[in-house]
Amino acid sequence: MWHIITAVALFVTYKIYVKILNCHSHHDAVLTGKVVIITGGSFGVGYKAAKDLAARGAKVILGCRDLDKGRNAQEAIIKVTGNKNVAYRKLDLASLESVRRFVKDFKDSGTRLDILINNAGAVKTGTVHTNDDIVESLQVNYLGGFLLTVLLVPILKQSGNGRIVNVSSILHRLGKMDLEKINCENVYNSFQMYCNSKFCNILFTKELAKRLSGTGVIVNSVEPGFIRTKTYSKNASLLENLSYLVQKLFLKSSSEGAQTLLYLALSDECEMVNGKHFSGCRETTISDKAEYGEMASKLWKFSEETVRLKCEETIM
């Protein structure tokens, strides 16, 4: 009997702890006239963030690898928010050419840019290289976003008070940084590569914040937490619905996971905060490894070379 009581008490304590860590971005910000680009905005945390931003009147551009999913997300957001100023554009972060084409088309449109949310990410099986000769998980989770951000920074500067939100993960603390091995096949397993790529996002945020100091553009990183992916279905198997129940009890919803992204994108409290890491709408610590020496600047140089950034494109 006492075992059951203890288990229940521990579970309740855990749920209270998670509730405290969760936050809701109750900001009354109106974004009419503002423009947002969000990657990975067709589902999950990215979709919830895009929907909230559209509801505030922003023009929201979804950068999507899968155009069918992008179209479905666009239609759903317009239906829910009534904001017809929602668009989707082809953006495959696993292709440097696709990133450059996306940025060129955006620049040619003459549109301002106020908020960039680098949310896209995935755990890729294996360590296969893309056509750009980059390990796919490293390119999708980090280097594609690095190139996208650097190319869009000039437009963010023109708009004034621009914000960049880089989505990392609590798993960045397990990341390793060996620039001679990070882009090699069969050195790390897919899970370790994911952790490495999220660690890169932390270092990228730190270095970018230094380079953007005094420009009016700020950048911070966020860990949304562990997000449940399963949904209940009457037609699903018992095992699938059991998995849903476990996730329902212990993991965050996509809406809860989106709150810190929105906090960093909208809150007045973040106007002077630059190069920091957040969880639960609060600044939090990063891996001690990220504080070592010149690791962030060395990663920046590696990134410039790997994505073949031109001299005139770099951020000094």
From TrEMBL:
Gene3D superfamilies: NAD(P)-binding Rossmann-like Domain. It comes from the Eukaryota. CDD domains: retinol-DH_like_SDR_c_like. GO terms for molecular function: oxidoreductase activity. Keywords: Oxidoreductase. Belongs to the short-chain dehydrogenases/reductases (SDR) family. This is Retinol dehydrogenase 11.
